[in-house]
Amino acid sequence: xxIVKPFKGVRPPKKLVEYVESRPYDVLDSEExxxxxxxxxxxxxxxxxxxxxxxxxxxxxxxxxxxxxAENFKxxxxxxxxxxxxxxxxxxxxxxxxxxxxxxxxKTQYGLVVGAYSGDYQTGVIKKHELTRRDKxxxxxxxxxxxxxxxxxxxxxxPDNAVLDALIKKYAGxxxxxxxxxxIDGFRHQFWVVSDDADIKVITDEFAKMPSLYIxxxxxxxxAAALVGTEKAAQNPNHKGxxxxxxxxxxxxxxxxxxxxxxxxxxxxxxxxxxxxxxEKLSExxxxxxxxxxxxxxxxxxxxxxxxxxxxxxxxxxxxTYDDSDPIxxxxxxxxxxxxxxxxxxxxxxxxxxRVDFVGGLRGLAELKRRVDSGEMRAALALYPVSMKQIMDxxxxxxxxxxxxxxxxxxxxxxxxxxxxx
Length: 422
What we know:
The chain contains 13 helices and 21 strands. The chain has helices at residues 17-20, 30-37, 45-48, 63-78, 118-123, 134-147, 162-172, 197-208, 219-235, 275-282, 332-342, 364-373, 388-397; strands at residues 4-5, 10-11, 83-84, 90-98, 106-117, 126-127, 149-150, 154-158, 178-181, 188-194, 213-217, 247-254, 260-261, 263-267, 286-292, 303-308, 311-317, 356-360, 379-382, 407-408, 419-420.
């Protein structure tokens, strides 16, 4: 059963939240962070992307950069830009967005900010669906260690729960602690504090009834946080199991509220094939139909959109190319990886190949077209998005999805609340 606890959040005063809050560290590069921070000394980028405080070109993995993160975290607290709450409590975080996947209609999803138990990650109660890379884990572990805190949350999904839904709706009817529209994504972000003891108990008890929690986004942060917790336990001769380092910060959303966008591919070459040869090889496993110059989006599972030489094509996987009883083999990301990216293009390991890149669905088909038309890429492939049910089924089965299979929007804003490990 899932174990969660309230915690004393470290967060900005209401009047400063829009100065402090930022995008997550892994959705922008150093120069983008430098530009977004500008002359705002209160920007969280000084903690999560502290290389911006060094000359251009300084590696984000430089030892001085990690030390600067801790120095800036202390500075933010000393200056009152971040203040720790006096009571252990939960928080509610809402995101309102308009996305193509939702018909461009306004949609709000509500997450509970909790301390998730590291032991649940180790035992598989917290389930993952992606492989992690050791170098990225180590980077996040260094950041957690040096700050002795989870500066940014991970993104979990939980099975729909009527009791928690009712509690969240009660708070949604109240005035939020924070309420702002982020300048980059244009989405609305709201935040409530759950300090009532009875409500705190309800949240703890309802999570205790859940057999599993699911990592939606933030696999490396989850792994790093859990590993640091294990390290601290081993280093503490008086370890009891209830210390704060046994928990890490997660925002947990009801699975049915989440929107999974397509995660598309662009590739630099056709592996020596002409366009005609490439289309002919595709026709062995797909029904290929020319859709002309107008953007064409996949309409259903097992249909793909190809952009090549200024025209869009529909690729429909033929029967027998996938197995409906196989939770991995039925995925479009697996079908396209096997039959196109590997068999025809021979791209090798998609996590390290320099011949392919991945484009989140929020950028739309226009971004795929732009990158091909510019000559940077030779062709693009758009996929039908994975469903949240598929992600949970795969995690439950103990399987791992192929690389770059899911793209969640909206992304969590960082800096609304921080969890200290001591």
